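pinning this so it doesn't scroll away 📌
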Amino acid sequence: MSFSSECKEELSRLPVGDKSCCRMAELAALFMAAGSLNLLGRGLMSVQFTVESAAIVKRVFILLQKEMDLTPQVHSVTHARFGGSKKWVLTLGPKQSPALLTAFSMMEIDAHGQPYLRGTYPRIALSRVCCMRAFLRGAMLAAGTVSNPDKGYRLELVTTEEIFRLPLGKCLQRFELPVQSSRRKEADILYFTQGEQVATFLTLIGAHQAVMKLEDARIKKQVLGGVNRAMNCDAANLEKQMNASDQQLDRIAQLISSDQFSALPLTLQEIAKARIHAPDASLAELGEMLSTPIGKSGVNHRMRRLMQYADIKKEATTIKKE
């Protein structure tokens, strides 16, 4: 099961809650993203929700039962053209649909007691924070995807109608989530690509287990990033150390070949011999090899004097040849 599916399974298992306003907000988002209104003629109509999993169907079923005591029909459809993928369809027939449509302010009763359709999309108030969170949860269940945090951070909400995109954007703005948008085929995609933003969104809608997995992945990436930086730093330091060692050995060889080595102070002769015997050793390790051990700074000081002495001798030899 993908991380996105696991996240939706978790959301589907959340308690429905006792607030009617929140149940209606979640149902409204589910209808806007995955619902359809079917006109059957003679004023009759049905409502369908088409979703990707049985868990989401169960969620919609429970919301409808608890809010309006409706008992929809459920069946699955397998699409052979798309690799045998299965969709789940929840249907409210002509007798039950008016109750939901009226609750959504999509249907009203005229002066003659006959129902008539006012609109094709729900009209709900999203003024409370709890309702906005419920609306975002419904949007995620019906139109959202989130990538595996081990591979990257991206959460998408797909909208095909402006009437759904506007309240969705309003809710995201209320929670100060700087969402980005793009166009894909005939749909507008609202998305986040920052791990912190994805975690904030999932926390708002109640997907706490998904947030824990995401945070674990973020911590692992930070640790691995630190290890890689340390390794790169060590490699750079080692290369720098080897280059310095090569330069030191080159200067020492020049002093020996020009018979100037014996004229060096004994402390410089000792550090030069230590370097010859241990070309890969660090300055601290060289200091431990001396008859009277000294620290890294002391070794560094002697090496600088040795290099300066070799440069002076080299310059003097060049001038003499000229």
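📌 and the second one:
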Amino acid sequence: MGSNEVDLTEYLQVLEQFRQENTEEIKKYWGSIGAYDDFVANVKAKQEDVARVAIKQYGSIEKYTEAMRESMGRFSEMMDKLQEFRPQVEDYIQKNNRLMSQLTADITLDISSAEVQDIVGAIISLYETAHPGTDKEEHYWDRVIDGYLNNDSIMKVNDEVYGAGASEFIGKAFQKYFK
């Protein structure tokens, strides 16, 4: 995609208009006008990537711009709703991290053991409880498992957090659970 094919001018105008009309919201949710300006500068620096994602997800830059204009109009309302859920999200993250730490405490254990499979079951149950009625598309857990076993960045993060080999152990333990 050559630079001349990418035109985010209208989208950048939406961001600029939002900046001019919503300085208090920007300070409240971004922390400062400077942080928002950094976000806009990042969009400008990565225009081709932004355009590629916009076209992939929305069909065109124009449709993406219109969707962003509409969501910027409801920005404060959406952010306030998110704030309401912050305690539940933080609680979920803490519980999930604790279970993952238990699961990876000894990666020499047999993934078929009741000890390992009980923890995997608890992780899945926690997810299901935290996301009630979430419409998980078919093969959701297959993709999660694939991430633990084959996605370099996911594997790297898990191995850094839980120790070398942890991601593979998690993936195989989940695979066993679903078989």
